[in-house]
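Section 5.1 Outputs to date
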Amino acid sequence: MPSSTSSFDRAPQGGWGKRVLVASFFSILFLTSIELIYRSLGHQPSVTDTPDIWSDVRASIEKTEDSDKSVLLLGASRMLTGFDLDTFHQMYPNRNIFQLAVEGKWPIATLKDIAEHSNFSGTVIVSVTAESFLNDFLDHQKQHIDHYHKVYMPSFDHKINTRLQRFFQSKIVLLQHSLHPKLVALSLAKTKALPKPHMMHTEYSREKDLDFSSKNQGFQNMARNLENPKDFEQDIKGWEINYTSWLSNIREIRELVEKIQKRGGKVVFVRLPYSPIRFSIFERYMPKEKYWNQIYKYTNALTVHFQDMPRLSSIEMPDESHIDVKDKPFFTRVLLEYLQTKDVFL
């Protein structure tokens, strides 16, 4: 009688394992080829910056050794894109540094969280402008803080997934959101070309690089439109600028500064550069003499204004507000050398 043994039973022993290995090999070869093509076009690995990634950095602050020698960066996009961590490590190889700035959001709420819910005893460099202390902006980063305390910290799985995501995205170009197959297909359909490199990419540390070079011309034009001086003035007109209320907020900041100082830490408020035209507009509404110069008086924290560092005047800001990646090392070195003269890093 003919055997009823199926074709699966007749397959050579180990056949499926070999097929899986061959398929895996060619899949890896294909993905590696695509990865190399994108890299040849100028694409770089970039971490998708989310409240989870921010929380991962926030958590690492609590576990750092030698907290008193560590540095914490707070602020908004100018701190994220302007401060070069490599330059910092070259100048201070034995110090840790953490990037907690948040794009588009002022950092007063995070300063409060560090003062009240952390044992951090190092140096906190806070990028602010006078507007940062207006009522509308005091809780700008509260969403990130709540996510850290209520979502990230209670969940072990959340922490593991975030760290894996952060690590692999910092190494592999194909994991960029902008290179998702659907978005690539859309780009090919519209422009008959693969997507161009984005003008901004995010490092593992959360540091961001802004590249205004010609290869990113389309994004450069977009940024210029977003940072149009006329639009900036319209934004200022929408702020509720009340000097009495602003001064009250500044006085309350002193309590946060003193909590960090009592632990042996330091707080430095830094006013990062604007273009001359943008700064002149800002001065009409919140003049330096009336506003910025009061911050030291009422907070007992060191204040540093970009006008205190004349060497920075040589730096161009293509969008009137942010520093190109090529100028980051120079900017950071000038700032750190100035802070040295103020005995910030002893």
